[in-house]
Specification:
16% of the residues are buried. The chain is of the alpha+beta class. The strands form 2 sheets. Strands 2-1-4-7 form a 4-stranded antiparallel β-sheet, with no helix packed on it. It has 1 helix and 8 strands, in the order H-E-E-E-E-E-E-E-E. The protein is elongated. The chain has one helix spanning 3-30; strands spanning 40-45, 50-54, 62-63, 69-74, 80-83, 94-96, 100-103, 113-116.
Length: 118
């Protein structure tokens, strides 16, 4: 094998490696734009209605039905924080890891919103 044949192969390999690296970087840079929590968030309202939200966005605050929820099941791949307010603020939050559920304590108010840990 001659030296002249080796140089173009090295350049080609470097170009391919650089292209793959740039493609991976571009994919990770755009991945958070429309990212969802894969799976359902299921909650039971104070009026015993069962609501299921499939793959909600991981960004922002998600309101629960006006009556609030007394049981929440996190079937997503992302952890959830439950709030007693409608705007995901204030104390008295509850952390629900992925694939877990939680039920309000007797006498405590219902959850009214949730957000994702990301």
């Amino acid at each position: 094998m001659s030296v002249t044949a080796t140089v173009p192969r090295r350049r080609r390999r470097l170009a391919i490696a650089a292209g793959v690296s740039l493609l991976a970087l571009a994919a990770t840079g755009c991945s958070g734009l429309g990212r969802t929590a894969v799976g359902p968030v299921t909650y039971t309202t104070e009026r015993e209605a069962v609501i299921q939200v499939n793959s909600p966005s991981v960004r922002g605050c998600h309101r629960i039905a006006p009556a609030g929820a007394h049981e929440v099941e996190n079937g997503t791949l992302v952890d959830v924080i439950l709030y007693r307010t409608r705007d995901c603020t204030g104390g008295g939050t509850t952390y629900v890891p992925t694939r877990f559920s939680d039920v309000t304590a007797p006498g405590s108010g219902p959850w009214r919103s949730y957000s994702f840990v990301h």
